[in-house]
């Protein structure tokens, strides 16, 4: 019986390592897209919608993989089933209803970032309970991300270049926050 449990443990460890790597790559992609939008805010909204559609679908898949991984604390991935499904649906909408979503993109991204920020605030408080020393950094980044997400809900679309810069800033902060959370809260039994 012991060899089977050890094999399962090794498989779980490898699955968790792959999920952490995928989260890290996704976080870097969000940061790169965000920086690009900050530097080139005149980028066409339809192009942004299509790229974000692909990213959201990838994000949804990664979030679902995270939910089904075997993280010891279950902090970083605790809301990933809901966010994974939501992101997959959002990605499909961005890809297949591009013209329609282009008008709603600031509010849509604002809602996604705001929801994710609220979940990350809870994650930071749970991390504090588990004794993770940098829980406060997750909290600060989540509050900043939430505030910027809320700004996207109230800024008029007429100021397109400003909206694109704000979307870029949101993506950079969300990417940094996701990277930090996955590397600071995900624990494997052998790493303790």
UniProtKB/TrEMBL annotation:
It holds the Pfam family DUF308. The keyword Hydrolase does not apply. The chain crosses the membrane at residues 21-39, 45-65, 77-98, 104-123, 135-156, 162-182. Keywords: Membrane, Transmembrane, Transmembrane helix. GO terms for cellular component: plasma membrane. It comes from the Bacteria. PANTHER family: PROTEIN HDED. This is DUF308 domain-containing protein. It comes from [Bacteroides] pectinophilus ATCC 43243. The lineage of its organism: Bacteria, Bacillati, Bacillota, Clostridia, Eubacteriales.
């Amino acid at each position: 019986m012991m060899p089977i449990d050890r094999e399962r443990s090794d498989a779980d460890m490898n699955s968790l390592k792959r999920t952490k790597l995928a989260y890290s790559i996704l976080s870097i992609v969000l940061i790169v897209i965000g920086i690009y939008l900050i530097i080139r805010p005149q980028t066409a909204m339809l192009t942004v919608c299509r790229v974000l559609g692909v990213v959201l679908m990838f994000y949804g898949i990664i979030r679902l993989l995270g939910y089904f991984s075997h993280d010891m604390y279950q902090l970083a991935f605790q809301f990933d089933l809901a966010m994974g499904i939501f992101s997959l649906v959002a990605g499909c909408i961005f890809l297949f209803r591009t013209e329609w979503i282009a008008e709603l993109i600031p509010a849509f991204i604002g809602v996604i970032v705001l929801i994710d920020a609220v979940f990350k605030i809870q994650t930071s408080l749970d991390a504090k309970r588990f004794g993770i020393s940098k829980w406060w950094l997750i909290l600060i980044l989540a509050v900043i991300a939430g505030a910027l997400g809320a700004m996207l809900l109230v800024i008029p679309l007429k100021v397109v270049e400003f909206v694109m810069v704000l979307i870029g800033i949101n993506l950079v902060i969300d990417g940094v926050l996701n990277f930090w959370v996955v590397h600071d809260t995900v624990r494997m039994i052998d790493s303790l």
